[in-house]
């Protein structure tokens, strides 16, 4: 090839490279600058005091009072710390992977119209609004999921990313994560009431139908021991560890307004007081409700139900330590599973073992 032809070929290849770069590379202008940026800035999270989620199934309103998020739809019951954290974490960590379209006529197809933009529920997205002092600081609309494309014809597709819209921008973005907004207030309720580390516990006092029990210790370095052990007896390590494990994640299963479970239908079977080394205590009671059906003796609904009620703290130290519990004592009652309830219905024989007895 002559030198002249080599020069021409080099020029042509250079023009081709420039064309490829122009058409395939990121475009200047438009909304491509949002690619690889998070949905919202972490700075937004510092000031927000209200979260509103709305979709075709209903709405959810969370209000921050002090350090506690409360659910308006549940008479101010505390929202799950974990659920609130997870939601806000997604907003500040999920990143836009691509701009799908800037054509406003395509918003309905991706289920990304606001409720004031259409009356067709199939076109409306799920809306998340973060507010500070009643003023919106961030709005997100969540639309349909992107379906994966399977190479095997007999394999079904599955959600593989989510189409979203931010604020009033008439553009469809894609994030790689599957994002859904839940408005079921029941699932947002805080079910872990207390978290106590094992070395914080100074004493636990039971008063059950089987009698009174006290496990205590004078120093954190010691183990909780059953008071009144006789010669040749020891405290069960299994039951001691079981107790500490339950207090580390003190959880209930269902939550009801107190007037939905009449006191006349309940029988108290245990009263428990937990004392910590900081001199605070929290107290609760376990109740049983017999649910019998004489016409169906073998029916599973014949099994008793167990409920837990919190007892208001009396000392100033306890009121300060368990402030979040104090607000729940006169409004709420908690249902717990039978296996959980029975951990607080122990008798002396459960804790006191012969020293040579294997566990």
How would you briefly describe this protein structure?
Helix content is 21%, strand content 33%. The chain has 359 residues and is an alpha+beta fold. It has a nine-stranded antiparallel beta sheet, with no helix packed on it.
Protein model, in words:
The protein is of the alpha+beta class. It has helices at residues 3-24, 42-47, 81-93, 185-188, 237-248, 316-321, 323-326, 338-341, 348-351; strands at 50-55, 58-65, 68-71, 77-78, 96-101, 126-132, 135-147, 159-166, 172-175, 192-194, 201-208, 211-216, 225-226, 233-235, 250-251, 254-257, 267-276, 281-289, 305-311, 332-336, 352-354. A nine-stranded antiparallel sheet has the order 4-3-2-1-6-7-8-9-5, with no helix packed on it. Strands 13-12-11-17-18-19-20-16 form an eight-stranded antiparallel sheet. The chain has a two-stranded antiparallel sheet with strand order 10-15. The longest helix is centred in the first third of the chain and has 22 residues, at 3-24. It is elongated, with a radius of gyration of 30 Å. The protein starts with a helix and ends in a 5-residue tail after the last strand. Residues 9-13 and 15-29 have low confidence and may be disordered.
